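Anyone able to model this chain together with adenosine-5'-triphosphate?
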Amino acid sequence: MAASVQLDHVTLKFKKFEALKDVSLTLEAGKIHGLIGRNGAGKTSLLSLIAAFRVPTSGKVLVDGSPVFENPEKMEQVAFVYDKDYKEETEKAKKLIALASHYRPHFDMDYAEHLIKRFKLPIDKSVNKLSKGMQSALNVVIGLASRAPITIFDEAYLGMDAPAREIFYKEILKDQEEHPRTFILSTHLVSEMDYLFDRVVIIDQGQLVLNEPFETLEARGASVTGAASDVDAFTADMKQLNAQQLGGTKSVMIYGELDELKRQEAHTMGLEIGPVALQDLFIHLTEEAS
Ligand SMILES: Nc1ncnc2c1ncn2[C@@H]1O[C@H](COP(=O)(O)OP(=O)(O)OP(=O)(O)O)[C@@H](O)[C@H]1O
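re: yes, here you go
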């Protein structure tokens, strides 16, 4: 089960400060959305509106066409996983999982047990005694096993080591094939997670920069790799986002579409053309927006 999200001219103010400024966007049902933005861009503010933790100052936040705020039927369709403060949480991990299974209508306990094993989560420990990475794994177990039609992970990986993050990413992809839902993944680990995204949403200083399919975004640039002197000659009059050199081999990320003629020229020169890195595009687009 998956649901769509629509923001219609949404503004969120904290006193006079506008954390979100007239944001309108649609998140498609059944897609994995990567939400990226600099620190303080407004990602958590946006997500807390979708999860109905807050009400917008103006504008509408709709889940499958109906307002989500104070709407229990829509609110139970949204799972919002974020970096909770568990300092005072003395219940055991298994108790929190059992509680979630009661109030989440699509919760799958068999899947939760599978995830507990995958993350080696010590469910008999009090939650405040779990390591930071284990607390994150607990949040991820609850978020994934809830199978909420809209599942939001707001930097849910904090404290997780690389193997645990890898398990998290693989489980998202595997479960999405079998039980499609709408995921929103807010992250600063852009280069690590970009392969998960069907669509990319970038916000900057409270404003929407773009909301596009990943392939369309990737086509906005390219990577050019080959002998350093040839790469330099080929990219001389192009907008360069990033360059790396190892010995005589250079790789340059360029901004701008390469037409067929240019691609043939690169081929003739023995240069390899690949996709542009989302991380480099993101840095460029947010600098441009500023
Ligand atoms: N409760 C609040 N009161 C006042 N200002 C707030 C509040 N919550 C957020 N803000 C401000 O709103 C802006 C957006 O914050 P938000 O947490 O949404 O950003 P973010 O993109 O999630 O950032 P980060 O990547 O650093 O977590 C920031 O300038 C922040 O200081």
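Residues 14, 17, 19, 37, 39-45 surround adenosine-5'-triphosphate (CB under 6 Å).
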